[in-house]
Amino acid sequence: MSDVLDSAAVQHLMLVPVLLPLLVAAWMMLLGEERHRLKMALNVGSCAVLLAVSSTLLLRAAQEGAANALGVYLPGNWQAPFGIVLALDRLSALMLVLTSLLALAASVFACARWHRAGVHFHPLFQLQLMGLCGAFLTADLFNLFVFFEVTLAASYGLLLHGSGRARVLAGMHYIAINLAASALFLIGVSMLYGLTGTLNMADLAQHIPTLPDADRGLLHAAAGILATAFLIKAAVWPLNFWLVPAYSAATAPVGALFAIMTKLGIYAILRLWTLLFGAEAGASAQFGSQWLLGAGLLTMAFGAVGMMGSQRLGHLAGYAALVSSGTVLAASSFGQNLLTAGMLYYLPGSTLAVGALFLLGDVLDRWRSPNQGADPYEQEDEEAPFLNARLEHTRGFNLDENEDALVGRPIPAATAFVGLAFMGCTLMLAGMPPLPGFLGKFAMLSALLNPLGLAASAGQQPGLAGWTFLAVLIVSGFLALTALVRVGIAHFWASQGRRPLRVGLAEGLPIGALLLACVLLAVAAGPALHFTQAAADALYAPRGYVQAVLGAEPVPSSAAGSTPSEPGEKTP
Amino acid sequence: MELTLALAIGVLTGSGVWLLLRPRTFQVIMGLSLISYAVNLFIFSMGRLGLATGKEPVLHAGVPQDLAHYTDPMPQALVLTAIVIGFAMTALFLVVLLASRGLAGTDHVDGAEPPEGDGPDDEGLAP
What we know:
The complex is a heterodimer of chains A (572) and B (127).
Chain A: H1 7-13, H2 16-30, H3 36-63, E1 71-73, E2 86-88, H4 90-110, H5 121-137, H6 141-159, H7 165-196, H8 201-207, H9 216-233, H10 243-249, H11 252-258, H12 261-276, H13 289-308, H14 313-332, H15 337-368, H16 403-406, H17 413-430, H18 436-449, H19 463-493, H20 505-523, H21 525-539, H22 543-551
Antiparallel strand pairs in A: 1-2
Helix pairs in contact in A: 2-3, 2-5, 3-4, 3-5, 4-5, 4-11, 4-15, 4-20, 5-6, 6-7, 7-9, 7-10, 8-22, 9-12, 10-14, 11-15, 12-14, 13-14, 13-19, 14-15, 14-19, 15-17, 15-18, 15-20, 15-21, 17-19, 17-20
Chain B: H1 2-20, H2 25-45, H3 73-104
Helix pairs in contact in B: 1-2, 2-3
């Protein structure tokens, strides 16, 4: 790919993930609501282009050596600490591909019926993509805030898409907690600015080791406040009670896209923590790792118990997102590059599986109650579709009595497809072989037990934290398996007396594609793990990132009379 | 000046947090607004040269152009962005609040009145 695209073209390609969704959204706003077919095509087309661009960027980032696997773009043509910077390394490229893949699947799924449930679905979808991509690309704390807010503003609209009492109530809680989190974000950012005089992440990383001891406490307070804002977004216990009602009340494609939103908080923590509090941060090195570990473990436990306690697929997918989020956070808190490599391999697979489960849940809910309109879950008894208040099964659930009727009955193709897809999600989320859920967990556990690599770790013990993580990881996987299998039995085996399931192409294709991506991730596990290993190594050697960002030279101005040191105008 | 500003931020934040925890949606939105005012003042106070009282905010003829004679422009840019975003978000929250009031018939944050004698005794709007 690199021989086709020269370096300059790739540089400008970095802007596409931010500019394309913004322009497409602006265009769609100008189109009337009756042009929904054109909007649909634009939305899906933009997501497809985005996937192609981010895949190109990923291949580019994977190809180059460890030293220069970083694209830096100066949008205002000012040098780094003064102007704003976009930086692309392996981690951001990975997140971009993940976002665009999930977005493509969700946008195709929405074309089946959900995009007509309200107005402005497609522009909001594109704006959310712009915010997500921008947040993954920016190398500047305040732009991170702005892109977070773009993402959140679009997500408020998307969450309320379709309206209905459940969505408005969940949306109100979601907006309130995110506004409070934004206030914390601003406090943390301004404290960091007050202490160091910069908001550029690379410049911050340089200032922190040389900070006077008197300011160390303030720095830690600022980092803690900032991290709280990110942890709310990452839905870490006890800051996550908003997530399950909000995600399960949202329409299915929106829920699937939101699966990446918790990972945005994780990404921000991982990026800032490795840059600001890495091994080179002097007295502040590894600040807060115990908190991250504890929060991650509690989130995993909470999510696993929540999965056991829920029967609705929307709730189940929400709790699965919590388990995935907690696992990723706990794994990254150890600060070991091998463990982080396994975690980065686990992250895309589990995110895709959670997204697929949201989409699958919509198909299955419609199968179970075909007369439901665009406002599901209004009824009081919807909390527990299969059990009544006395925990007895509400409908025919006895498999043994009707055994003869089950033998030899053909399974319709749509039911078989949905059943297989549900099984795929179960294997992914529970971490069973052969899908990447298992491989990722295996890579993490292997790194935990052999922190210096397989051959070089004789005599290394994981310690109490390591053993706890190992136990929680395995037990949460087991609980997830139990919960998903139970719901699967209720949906697929005890499904007498329902009309046959019909799955349209626009609904089957995205679910199949998401799971196919998981299978491909398992097939290409070797190259993928090499890639995540390189990404993790680069994270724990922040010097390369710092030098690349601060060393980026502005393009000399070609206009007569203006010198590179005095550009005409600065992008605000 | 420092004491006045610190007290103002503290009072605004304290009132904001208290209101945020109240059961009525209007109290919540007032709380969020007060917190955002407090945060904006806080960002101002985080300029690199202290509170910079009595200095020019924009370029002025005859004043040497360095930071010793001007306020730190960075917090102003941050505050401006934060105000715009906070304003838009508050407006959106107001719409959602009204929608929730219309759909649920109550202004309680949970969309339903708590049972009698359970919880704070705030008088809600009659449904």
